[in-house]
Amino acid sequence: MIQGILSGNPMHKILNKTVFSKWVKELRSSKIYFPRKDDSGRWNYAQITPDEDAILDVSQTTLPPKKILFPQREIFLEFSKNIEGDGETLEVKEVMPEDGSTIIFGVRPCEGRAAWLLDKVFAGDFSDPYYWKRRNQTTLIGLACSIPPSENCFCLSVEGSPHSEEGLDILLTDLGEKYYVKVLTEKGEKLVEAAKKLFSDPHPEETKKAQAVQAESEKRLRRHLQEARLISEKLKGMFHSSLWDEESMSCIRCGICTYLCPSCHCFDISDEVDAVSPLRGKRVRTWDTCQFPDFTMHSSGHNPRPDKASRLRQRLFHKFQYFVEIYNQFQCVGCGRCISLCPVGIDIIEVLDKVRSHGS
Amino acid sequence: MAKIEELREEARRLLRDGKVKYIIGYGTGRDGWRAVPIFIRQPEEADRLIWNPTCVHNLSRFLADEKRRQAREKKPDRRPVGIVVKGCDSRAIVVLLQEKFIRRDDLVVLGVSCEKTGVIDEDKLTDKLKGKKPEKIEFGDQGEFIVAAGNEKIAVSAGELLAERCRECRANFPVIYDFLTGEKSPRPVERPFGSIERMEALSSEERWAFWKNELEKCIRCYACRSVCPMCYCDECVVDSISLAVTADTTAEEKAQKIKWVQKSPEISENFVYHLVRAIHLGGRCIDCGECERACPLEIPLRFLNKKLEKEAKELFGYEVGFDVSQPPLISCFRDDDPGDFIR
Amino acid sequence: MDRNVYLPQLARIIEIKEEVGGPRPIKSFRTKFVDGPGFIHRCGQCAMLSVFGKGESMISISSSPLVKDYLQFSVLKTGRVTTALHELERGDLIGLRGPYGNGFPVEDWKGKNLVFIGGGIGLAPIWSVLQTTLLDRFSYGELTLIYGARTSRDLVFKEELKELKSKMPVYLSIDVAEPEWQEFVGFVPQNVSHRKPTPENTIAITCGPPIMIKFVIQALKELGFADEQIYTTVENKMKCGIGKCGRCNIGFHYVCKDGPVYSWAELKKLPQEY
């Protein structure tokens, strides 16, 4: 499980931006990720060398930090058959993620919240050892959003906020020349301790300023989904609505909305064979999506979700109804990626608005 | 200039007379300025149709969905479907007709001419507006774009905002249509395959490094495939089980299906997927550029497909998507086709 | 340290029996854990069988938990993994992880009459309950089996059914008449209506193709069975088996974890998307 939230009050500190890279350098024994612009002009979390100049406040990354916590491909186990004497032996060996601490800087509060939601999924009755090995080794240093990183952000509507703390180990709030540092967990505390001379205690005005910046950031969100809890209730009665058919007409059944969603977690497990005789191969986990037509298809050819309408319905119900039934939380964190990147402009807020006003 | 009122009137007429069961066209998205695909069924809805430089989508992609829908219905409505097409999109329809994937009677093609301009590249627009939020983009009378953003309207020359593919466009008006709005004025193209020349100038090591760098980003979301009108196969090289399984398909048949490409986004698998898809589109791709636009990681997929379009023209004199009576490229041959690769 | 939930234990196939030949073959595999802790299951639970190099398949455990010597799986050959399973021989090793799912509430049924209604391979998931009640005969009331298949060849557990007839009423059926067939000809739901099991103090347990389950439930309700008296076990495509990969859900339930056993009262509240 995640290491403990700090007992007692979270630690508050101030870090001057001029010494920020000194702090990063102190942490160089870990793998460090920052948002980085690639050659096509898109931001993505990438590993940096400790000497690189690192920028924190960037527009939304294409891929969320989920790709580091829950990689698109990971090896579960390796199997091999060996001929020994008259017979064959079969060896099956688990392959755990490598040891080594990882630090991700610049995680947006919605992305931290998504990690917190993924934690719920991968814990429970059967704890997922691969996810937790990575999760426990990873520290998330969040950056509160002073302005929305995307034009489609709506975190407030799904019970998050531009400065929420779930899932994060440290939350930085940008005060202009300094960062207000709120240490939330023991993992976060360790990182601050590693360079504690760089941190100072906040003056009361600085604390006030941080609060003001955070309050102001809430007003800057441009999009809202009204009454999300009401929509969640209303969905229960709309399983058979014709709305799903209409709204899914332009869906092209790709995987963009789900692969880029910070809290989507569907996956596939398959065997990849490297050699046939003697048999040698791996069992791997890869991302999968409920939007692909064969996601739920039985071997017999029977498919409980044979059309786009039922698959769009599944995505929206899972995020706004089923997840709420199980965990009493929305599975959507309001990052807006699915809206910004859908090639045909399907807008989850628009569809849910129609759910809310349906029948009235 | 293409007149939206003419298009709307024609759409209204078709729907009112029940001549088509629905019309696939462009409408304004929720954000108020970007076009999105819309499906209209009632004559009143014809007013929702728009025509502006954000109409980038190739709507012929939805013809495969219509076919699948009919296959699922017990008593399908066999009336034709209306579809709004630009020049490039109409070439896709020509290819689909050549391959007999759809029948001419199943379509009412509502053509719109781009005349001297085309559609915009959204990244170029973002760069131009420098943070200002666009409110409306329209065609100007002289082939420029009128961009309304942040309470002002500016005229921007087409060259600054045009999508790359429009700069190499050889079909600025529909090559097949039942109705057309806008002039069929040919537009000179500086260098038809200009963007490829950049790639061809690189050495093969440089090209390998370029594609390795790009394809490592691929997350195999298959948006490129999903948005392509020509990728209509029920059984694609990347799908591990056939979507065309019936109750009679035996277990052996399913067990023996070869998994050509692993689901893992390893560089080897990504290469195979993209190269096989490009080859499967040889002689079929009409360079609508949608694959590249849809890609969330901005992989320059147009290069791959455009190269094969160029090969089709240079090696075989084959122009993709202009003449319905022409057979598909890979289903025909000439006696004097180049054979120098046979040693 | 908890055992890795995705890591199968190795098990050896100690016996293979061909239940059904022809185009829809079914084989029963009896397996024994090679080493490691093994596991004890409840009636109705399933396990993920691994054929390394091909994949995994979620199969019901058809032997009773009271039988300690082996775990039995009856597998219909239908796709890549099951075809590979059918090609294995006695002595071969497979992977097993489990047990998964919620199981039948067999304890709650003590003192009640039980009517088992199966179709085709659907007898296998409820066979474990049947075997358990037979091994603990006096804890339960009257036992009845109504079972049918497409043809006489498609019936599973043919020898066991012959033996069973001496212990309890066994009403078999096939869809279309065959020359040697003496028993009921028709679909299983029709046989249910024909045999008229009484609902008083009775639980009906049914499994088979989805269409059969639908009509069996209809027939049982016409006979006066309440929704809480009808139990079934559903299936869906599964990969992880532990409620994480997001694939097998019916509504907010994951069939692998919250199911596969449901009373009709519970199942009808969920969206009928399976």
Description:
The complex is a heterotrimer of chains A (360), B (343) and C (274). Chain A is α+β, with helices and mostly antiparallel strands. Chain A has helices at 20-26, 66-69, 109-122, 129-137, 186-193, 204-219, 228-235, 243-247, 256-259, 308-327, 337-341, 348-357; strands spanning 11-16, 31-37, 43-47, 73-84, 87-94, 102-107, 138-143, 170-174, 178-183, 199-200, 267-275, 280-287. Chain A has one domain. In chain A, the strands form two sheets. Chain A has an eight-stranded mixed sheet with strand order 3-2-6-7-8-9-1-10. Chain A has a four-stranded antiparallel sheet with strand order 5-4-12-11, with no helix packed on it. In chain A, helix 7 (228-235) packs across helix 10 and helix 7 crosses helix 12. The radius of gyration of chain A is 22 Å and the shape is flat. The termini of chain A are far apart. In chain B, 34% of the residues lie in helices and 12% in strands. Chain B is built from 13 helices and eight strands. Chain B has helices spanning 4-16, 62-72, 87-98, 122-129, 158-161, 164-167, 194-200, 204-215, 223-227, 251-255, 267-280, 290-294, 302-316; strands spanning 23-28, 35-40, 81-85, 107-112, 134-139, 145-149, 152-156, 179-181. In chain B, a hairpin with a 2-residue loop joins strand 6 and strand 7. Chain B is globular, with a radius of gyration of 21 Å. The mean pLDDT of chain C is 94. In chain C, helix 4 packs parallel to helix 5 (210-222). Chain C starts with 8 loop residues before the first strand and ends in a 7-residue tail after the last helix. Chains in contact: A-B, A-C, B-C. At the A-B interface, strand 11 and strand 12 of A face strand 2, helix 2, helix 9 and helix 12 of B.
Overall mean confidence score, pLDDT of chain B: 91
Total discrete domains of chain C: 2
Residue windows where pLDDT falls under 50 for at least 5 positions of chain C: none
Terminal CA distance of chain C reads 36 Å
Biggest interface between chains: A-B, 44 and 46 residues
Can you write the helix and strand succession of chain C as a string? EEEEEHEEHEHEEHEHEEEEH
Briefly summarize what is shown.
Chain B is of the alpha/beta class and 343 residues long. Chain B has helices at 4-16, 62-72, 87-98, 122-129, 158-161, 164-167, 194-200, 204-215, 223-227, 251-255, 267-280, 290-294, 302-316, and strands at residues 23-28, 35-40, 81-85, 107-112, 134-139, 145-149, 152-156, 179-181.
